[in-house]
Design goal:
The protein has about 140 residues and is mainly α. Helix content is about 70%, strand content about 0%. Helix 2 runs parallel beside helix 4 and helix 3 runs antiparallel to helix 4. The longest helix has 29 residues.
Length: about 140
């Protein structure tokens, strides 16, 4: 009997989070649903980022992929730290998960655009290296 009870409990515990997960309902404007929808939006953005990353990896050589992997890991650390900083004021509040997901989605979408742009450039193309040059003027 004990041998059956333990596996049954483990299965029940493993499926409990999935049973509690809710789908985004854009008609429900409760904070918990806004948090769920913001997370769903971030997850969709993250999936697009992964597709863009895989696309570049499939066209790069091994040395370029190693550099890209290093850059991507550093970017993820930056993104997470930036969003933690950006949402620090709401930490502990019910709105915090939504704000964090929105920040993650925004930066992830920006990175996806950057990777997609990079994928269409050849490493030796001098026009690609300066494609963002005009945007730097905003920082001066």
């Amino acid at each position: 009997m004990r041998r059956l009870l333990l596996p049954a409990c483990l299965v029940l515990l493993a499926t409990a989070p999935a049973a509690r997960a809710q789908e985004c309902d854009r008609n429900d404007d409760s904070q918990s649903m806004l948090n769920i929808c913001a997370d769903a939006d971030y997850q969709a953005a993250d999936a697009k980022l992964n597709d863009a990353y895989k696309n570049i990896v499939s066209h790069n050589d091994q040395a370029s992929n190693k550099l890209l992997q290093t850059a991507q890991r550093a970017w993820i650390a930056f993104r997470d730290a930036e969003c933690a900083y950006d949402t620090a004021d709401s930490q502990g509040g019910s709105i915090h998960p939504m704000e964090l997901s929105q920040c993650l989605r925004k930066l992830t979408n920006e990175r996806t655009r950057q990777l997609a742009s990079d994928a269409s450039c050849k490493l030796s193309d001098p026009n690609c290296a300066g494609s963002d040059a005009g945007n730097d003027q905003d920082l001066q």
